[in-house]
Amino acid sequence: MFIVCVAACPTGVAHTYMAAEALEMTGKQRGHEIKVETQGSMGVENAITDADLARAEGVILAADVAIINKERFDGMIKLECRVADPIKFGEAIFDALEQEADHG
After folding, report:
1. What one-character DSSP code corresponds to residue 95?
2. What b-and-e string marks burial along 36-75, b requiring 16 or more CB atoms within 10 Å of the CB?
3. Where along the chain do its domains lie?
4. How many other CB atoms are there within 10 angstroms of residue 21's CB atom?
5. φ, ψ for residue 5 (rounded to 5)?
6. Backbone φ/ψ region at 73: left (φ over 0), alpha (ψ -120 to 50), beta
7. What is d(CA 104, CA 34) in angstroms, rounded to the nearest whole number?
């Protein structure tokens, strides 16, 4: 499964990158291909492209602030959570997204 993710926290520093790393590690351990866009003090990094969106089977939005261009994920299988959740509850986040993908 190809999953795109966005990680963003109010300051856009520590938690953003910790969440991005947790999403990548947990996703890969579960056999998924993961791309994580970060939005923070450095701006948007590793931006999700139109090609990424076209092939994505799901999206995880881990944020405590408004996501830039969130509407690009409309109509997709989506899980929204706090930015710290992938760090603390990574397996549960992927369980929920996978279950939604399997059962719609």
Report:
1. H
2. bbbbbeeeeeeebeeebeeebebbbbbbbeebeeeebbee
3. 2-103
4. 14
5. -140, 155
6. alpha
7. 20
Query: What digits encode the pLDDT tens for the residues 24-47?
Result: 999 999 999 999 999 988 889 999
CATH for 2-103 (3.20.20.110, 3.30.200.20, 3.40.630.30, 3.40.50.2300): 3.40.50.2300
Residue numbers annotated as active site: 9
For residue 58, what are the CA distances in angstroms to 40, 42, 46?
22, 25, 17
Whether the full predicted model's pTM is greater than 0.85, yes or no, is yes
Q: What is the pLDDT of residue 80?
A: 97
Radius of gyration of the chain (CA): 12
Two tokens, residue 5: 């993710």
